[in-house]
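Before the break, one more example. Copy the sequence into your notebook; we will annotate it together after we see the structure.
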Amino acid sequence: MAEYAVKCAVDQAIQLSAEEQARLEAAFFVDYIDIHSVPEGQLASYQAFLIHSRILTKQLERFTQCRYIGVRAHNTDYVNGELARQLGIAVRGIPQEGANAVAEHAFALLFAVTKQLSAASHNVQAGKWREGLVPNLELRGKTLGIIGYGTIGQEVAAIGAALGMKPLIASGRGGAATSLDGRLSVEDVLRQADMVTLHASTQAGGAPLIGSRELAMMKDGAILINTARGSLVHEKELAEALRSGKLYGAGLDVYEDEPVRDSLLCELPNVVCTPHVAYFTRETIARMNGNLIDRAIAFFEQNFK
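Here is what the structure looks like once it is written out:
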C-alpha cells in the first residue's frame, strides 16, 4: 500500500533496479511510461513525475494535477521552469553525482580523437591496417582549456595536470579575467588552448557559447570536446570548422537535438560521437536514482502528509 495518495509517473528513460522500484512503490502509486507517447489526457492524472527527458511546453500545460517534477540531472533545463512556477509545480534536480564519470568520459573522447581510435579500429576490422592514418597526438605538454569550473571542470583539471597537460580555466560566458583565482576569459582560453573541453551550464534562450566567431579564435588544429549540453555549440558551424581543417577533431556526447538522427556532423571522419552516456556508469546511476527517489518522497512528506 502506498504511503501517500499520490500517482507518480516515471519516465521509462529512468531504469530503476528492483530495489529502487520497491522503495518508490512503497511511497506512491507508480506508473512507468514513455513520456513522449503517452496520451496527453493521461498526463493530467499524475501528481508527480520523475523524468530524464525533455518535457515539451504543450505537455507541461497538461500537468494540471502535478505538484512535483523530479529531474534525474543536476541541471533542470529539461523543464520550462517559468511555466512550471505559474502552474504551481515544484521542479527539483539532484546533486551533481557524475562528476568523476563525466570527467573520465571527456578524456575518453579526447584520447579517441587524438589517437584516431575509431578510424584505427575500423581499419583493423576491415583488413586495411594503417591505410589512411596519420601520426596521432600526445596529450603531455598540451594546453587544456576548461570552460566551466564546477565540480566536473575541477575533476578535468586534475586529470589533465596528472597527464602533464597545462590547464587553463575559464568560468562563465566571457567577460573579464578573474585575477583572484587565475582564471581567464573564455576568449583568452580559446585563443591559447590546444584542446578545449566544455563544462559550462546553458542559458535559457541564449546563443550557443561556441559558434563561428569562437571557432575562428581557436588555434588551427585545435580539438573541441563537449560533454555538457548540446546547446552550447552551433553544430553547423562546428561541422564547417571540422570540414575545413580549422579543427583537428571533436568529441561529442551531447547534441542540439537528441536522440541524433542522420547527423552530418557525426558522419565526419574527425568526429567521435557517443549517445549522451558520459554520466552513465553503474555507480553514478545508483547514486542518481537514490537521490531522485529520496527527494520525491521528502517533498510529499514535508508538504502533503
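The first strand starts at residue 7 and ends at 11. The chain has eleven helices and eleven strands. Try to locate both features in your own notes.
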